[in-house]
Predict the structure of Paired domain-containing protein.
Amino acid sequence: MARKRELSSETRQSILVLRNEGYSMREIAKKLKISYNGVYYSLQRTAQTGSNQSRKRSGRPRCTTKQEDKHIRVSSLRNRRLTGPQLASSLNSTRKTPVSTSTVKRRLRDFGLQGRVAKKKPYLRLANKRKRLRWAKEHRHWTEEDWKKVLWTDESKFEVFGSQRRTFVRRRTNEKMLEECLTPSVKHGGGNVMVWGCFGAGKVGDLYRVKGILNKEGYHSILQRHAIPSGQRLIGANFILQQDNDPKHTSKLCKNYLQQKQAAGILSVMEWPAQSPDLNPIELLWEQLDRMVRLKCPSNQSNLWELLLEAWGAISPAYLNKLTARMPKVCNAVIAALTKAKFDV
């Protein structure tokens, strides 16, 4: 037997209006193309309740108790890597009637616990965690103008075909292997281009193509020909140079050179915490640059380099300012995460 269709509030209102105008219930049923019983019970309920709205339904009873809901939440918070099936299995071990994985996931969503891809972060030793926390505390009160004095620098690799960065698609069920929903890949990415780049004060600096292996001599040349000229052009005298702790960056050759420039009042070198690429906003710039280049489908290494230069010049100042404006939030997030460990700094 087909399920009966519920009358809408508008239909019930029409029934009431027609009844008040003197129409019989059979005439109303014929006019609105609904059953006689539908008209009769609608008028009866309106007379009893004084409203033509649907009654509030109790809904299907929850199959889990408040105590079980709490167990699901606490178990997930104690071990963030437990999957829905694992949590359901743990709960069902103490129940006569098992609950589904979908039910467990709904309970988790009710508590605001969403399944997400875990962000990758290099393993940090205790000493590095302390340095990371100290850096965040020293810079948490910097203003937006303070952050604009920093020249952010880094190296990155871009592949001709495919990308190591995450790609999102929107698809329906059973479309996982559809060609337009796949990210094609080939061995070794079909070749790649290594670049060094920088930005500061809402503008991009030089983008330099690194050929071969970048050693301390090569990085020393980048400092001379690209980093310092970019910093002076974008920010001005005594800009703050940010670089990570890569061995070639901290070699005696480069260290002595930068100390000379500091003594001359040309720049200041920011002390950077070890294993902290996630703190550097240029990482987000690389992601954006990669997305822009992927839209053009580079065919070879030369074409990829041309597209990188084109996209680099198209980066908007508004986007770059947005990257530096988020730095206070980054510092506060680091402090919030590491303060729980009660480090002495």
The chain has three domains: 9-49, 66-110, 126-339. DSSP finds 14 helices and five strands in the chain. The first helix runs from residue 9 to 20.
